Amino acid sequence: MASVYVLQHIYCETPGIISGCLETEGVIADSIRTFEGKPIPQSMANASGLIVMGGPMSVYDQAQFPFLLAEQRLIEQALNDGKPVLGVCLGSQLLATTLGVEVKSGVQKEIGWHPVTLTESADTDALWKDLPAQFTAYHWHGDVFDLPHGAVSLAASECTPCQGFRYGENAYGFLFHMEVTEQIIKNMVVEFEEELKAEAIAAESIIPKIKDYLSKLQAIGGEVFGRWVKSLKPS
Predict the structure, then answer these.
(1) Would residue 102 count as lying in a domain?
(2) Does residue 235 lie in a domain region?
(3) CA–CA separation, 170 vs 83, rounded Å?
(4) Is 106 within the bounds of a domain?
(5) Is 204 marked active-site?
(6) Choosing a second label site near 217 at 20 to 30 A (CA), which of 58, 112, 116, 138?
(7) Which one from 9, 139, 141, 177 is the annotated catalytic residue?
(8) Of 133, 111, 135, which is closest to residue 122 (Cα–Cα)?
(9) Across the 235 residues of the chain, what is the mean pLDDT of every consecutive 10-residue run?
(10) Dihedral sign, CA of 99, 18, 34, 38?
(11) Owning domain of residue 34
């Protein structure tokens, strides 16, 4: 039976709809909640793949959050073992850092509902083929990165050229959020209220738009995550 490690950095950024995709395929999720002090596994030997979720910290905050270095080591091991990797938001930044790219503050934070456009490479990608070339995604990030050397660009937004990429055959990083549920979004708005105020972004610009965009986003995310889960093999 296949199993995955799921690294979660804060209570409100859960795997969301990814959990349903894992359950559908009978994949066991071993949740590593770093915010509860759970240690990062030393090895990928007992897992078929690795999922790294988002969080409010930055990849360059290792002094404050030393587990980030342990996560990078685990990502590197998964890559070396050829095991599927899925990084979401902070997770994509950790994957990019592991691949040798600098993660840094963007010109502006990208928070809320913003369009994402797929690249031509997505047309033939195992996860993205036959999906809409443009859609409105949910975002919450201030850090950005360039496309890692040897990676394939899959998605971009107006202010962030590298929103999604694939490295090798089965390692993916998505800066935007497709895993979100209505409750996750509402929890994030509450948890990160001060950040919204600092950016002069009103919660009213996020919550009411759930009805306009979430179901379509979840349909796309469900297909993408479902295809990724199918790439897992028993450990």
Answers:
(1) yes
(2) no
(3) 7
(4) yes
(5) no
(6) 58
(7) 177
(8) 133
(9) 96 98 98 97 97 97 95 98 98 98 95 98 98 98 98 97 98 98 98 97 96 98 98 89
(10) negative
(11) 3-230
